[in-house]
Amino acid sequence: MSTLIQINSATSSGAKGGVHTMVPFWGIFNFATSAQLAGNTTTSMFLSNDQVIYYPYIPNISYTCGSFNIEAVTGVAGTQGRICVYTQDANGLPTTLVYSSANLNLSTAGLKTATTSFSFIAGNTYWLAVQSSGAPHVKSISSSGLVQVWNYAVGGGFSATAWVQAGVTFASGAPSPGAPNSFTLQGVPLITMNKL
């Protein structure tokens, strides 16, 4: 007598090889997910005026995002932010703008929410981005909790955590296409996603 044993691969269970959001998360209780890889403590950072920071998000599961969130740690008068999502080009750079939130007021402390119904597809690489006006103070993911976008080994080694696009006038809207012209070795603004 022979026995058939079925082994469920990642593909058959719905996972597609992403490195973020490894397991389905529950929409009830307002649980959220992010691009943070480890359970390390979040920190905070000041953003720069008229700048966009892009960092990769590769979900392991498909889901519909009901809201994007960013947290102002302390209010900085006159500051605003915008949460964006980009797809990538053949060179692995953020290019096509597929989502842009309304302007979020970061001049007061607290969680700022952009309601949506954006669908993430498992295994696809997205670039989460924050565009800033003024120098808002926001919660962030430390560099140790991020996928590195490239490593420069000369002179001791540096790991870039995100692409940066400087000189983007906030009033003109989110850049489309994205066109990074710099990089950072530091943490990035924490964007959380709640399931619809």
Task: Provide the fold topology.
Elements: E1 32-33, E2 43-46, E3 51-57, E4 63-74, E5 80-88, E6 94-100, E7 104-105, E8 110-120, E9 126-133, E10 137-141, E11 150-152, E12 158-160, E13 162-166, E14 182-184, E15 188-189, E16 192-195
Antiparallel strand pairs: 1-16, 2-10, 3-9, 3-13, 4-8, 4-10, 4-16, 5-6, 5-7, 5-9, 10-15, 11-12, 13-14
Brief digest:
The chain has 196 residues and is mainly β. The chain has no helices and 16 strands.
Descriptive notes:
With 196 residues, the protein is an all-beta fold.
Mass-distribution shape: globular
Poorly predicted residue ranges: 1-15
Structural class: mainly beta
Order of helices and strands: EEEEEEEEEEEEEEEE
What amount of the residues lies in strands? Answer: 35-45%
Instruction: Quickly count the helices.
Output: 0
Q: What is the straight-line distance between the termini?
A: 48 Å
- Radius of gyration based on Cα positions: 18 Å
What's the helical proportion of residues? under 10%
Q: Which terms would index this structure?
A:
seven-stranded antiparallel β-sheet, 196 residues, mainly beta, 44% strand, 16 strands
